[in-house]
Amino acid sequence: MSSLKDRNITLQKAESRPIRATKRRRQLHLFFFSLGPVALCSISVLLIALMAILYVSQVGQAVASNQKIQQMHAQQMQLQRQNQDLQNSIATEQSPEYIANQAKQQGLVPADANTVQMLVVPHLHRIAQPDENVQP
């Protein structure tokens, strides 16, 4: 069991803590109201102006980022169209009709099987015919 003196000491310590806090609040409270209405108004205007400047700078950064995103999106779309055009031209140029037309324009003619000469090399093994199912 604790003695009565110990209880009184703990109660006094507990009571002294809020008293100190209220004294500090009163000192802070007096500081703000001792400035006067003109000073408080000017401080308020300065704080509001600072917040407005910060807000405008954030909005400016957001707009700049949005413009960069839109430019990159437009560039991506342009590159996709260019890629599609290149794929179409590759497909066209790989077609047998296009190759035959280009060969005719350059003066090439199909070879006649009767006039083709074959060169026979002794001691050379024949290469097996490639599978028709396998594409190069």
Any overview of this molecule?
This protein has 136 residues and is mainly α. The protein has a domain at 53-106. It is 72% helix and 0% strand. It has 3 helices and no strands. It has helices at 4-34, 37-93, 96-105. The longest helix has 57 residues, at 37-93. The mean pLDDT is 81.
Describe the protein's topology.
Layout: H1 4-34, H2 37-93, H3 96-105
What's the quick description here?
With 136 residues, the protein is mostly helical.
Beta-strand segment tally = 0
Radius of gyration: 46 Å
Using the alpha-carbon principal axes, give the shape. Answer: elongated
Distance between the termini: 99 Å
Q: Report the average pLDDT across residues.
A: 81
Strand proportion: under 5%
